[in-house]
Amino acid sequence: MPLSADQVSDRIEINDLLVRYTRAIDTRDWDLLDTCFTPDAHIDYKSSGGVAGSYPEVRAWLAKALAQFDAMMHLVSNSSVELDGDSARARTYVLNPMGMKQADGSLHFFTVAADYKDRLVRTPEGWRIAERIEEQMFVQGGMPSGVRAPK
Question: What is the CATH number of domain 5-140?
Answer without folding.
Answer: 3.10.450.50
